Fold this protein.
Amino acid sequence: MNPPQVAGPMQAADPLAFCAEEVGRIEAAGLLRRVRALQSASEPEVTLNGRRVLCLASNNYLGLAAHPEVVDAAAEAARRYGAGAGSARLITGGLVLHDELEARLAAFKGTEAALLFSSGYLANLGTVSALVGPGDAVFSDALNHASIIDGCRLSRAEVHVYRHADVADLDERLANWRRRVPTESRALVVTDSVFSMDGDIAPLPDIVDACERHGAILMVDEAHATGVVGPGGRGAVAGYGLDGRVGVVMGTLSKAFGAAGGFIAGSADLCAYLRNRARSFIFDTALPPPAAAAALTALTIVEREPERPVRARRLATRLATGLRAAGYAVPDPPAAVLPAVIGAPEAALALSARLLDSGVLVTAIRPPTVPQGTSRLRATVMSTHTDAQIDRAAAAFAAAGPPSG
Ligand SMILES: Cc1ncc(COP(=O)(O)O)c(C=O)c1O
């Protein structure tokens, strides 16, 4: 005999069905993102699907991610301190290694102090949202990195997005805002120094002047400048001779330093404040010991071998010449990031695929990472590329045809 049928609850529709629908829409717009899996370290040549290809798609600008001394330092730190820090810095995750790295980063950046975060993303998120809040305002360049944009949103301050690198627009917005708010309201101006997707450099001297005129705090994100531009790779702030005039300098350990992590460099008071108010510092497990040790050794190498940043810039200039000859407008002088703007996302993907066929890996960057209509290939150099590799990449761009899309 069959058991009696019991009426159960009606089968509800899958509440996550929107995921597949949205992914379908993203794919139809040519904007679907897929993760590539390399089978080797991030070096001038990488192994992808079993094939060696020339890599122009890594932020390992000084070739330090797989440098033997850096790798040894990470391994030794793992043996001594463990793979993870075990808890937040403010609990028991703080190690002498973190203190030493902070002191060395402060000396490198020419500031009184530095504070580590476990990524550059978290450094921006926590710092922007700690420095301004409701009743304050943040002025952010239109092409700033997503981590800055998210920090602005999280802060609940008024957000003013000024036109890219346009100091007149920034100045006018600061003046208008100052006229209508109480004097105790804080203004924070925040900008990338080397822009991550365009490779151009913010007009920092004029931005500093505008901030000083209006009593605004200035925060400069040197993620793509640290280790690459300025004297000894100290960044664009140092390169422009602005040491001491930028209150908040942010950097990453994940790009030229070849490790992982982020930091803020500034006064001891700023770092003490952030240690107490930046939620992404307080409530996050400390930087893993291998990453801290790797970054410390990478910093030693950068200071010992100042020719690395010089060579990265020379190779960028060499690639820029090739890209210009192939019809692309690239910044002059270039940092290590060179954009080849195409336009439509499908055209950027098609060019990336053609280049990969010819053995050159350059990633297509599409909205929302870059504005609509400016999909591009983002080419990056490493100081460890050879001249011949850079020439091969330039030739591949030329052979792939003029920019179109
Ligand atoms: C300008 C800029 N700021 C911050 C970050 C975040 O740094 P991280 O990758 O170390 O989290 C990045 C990179 O991804 C970046 O390009």
Notes: The pocket of pyridoxal-5'-phosphate is lined by residues 119-121, 124, 145, 147, 192, 196, 221, 223-224, 252, 254, 262 (CB under 6 Å). The radius of gyration is 23 Å.
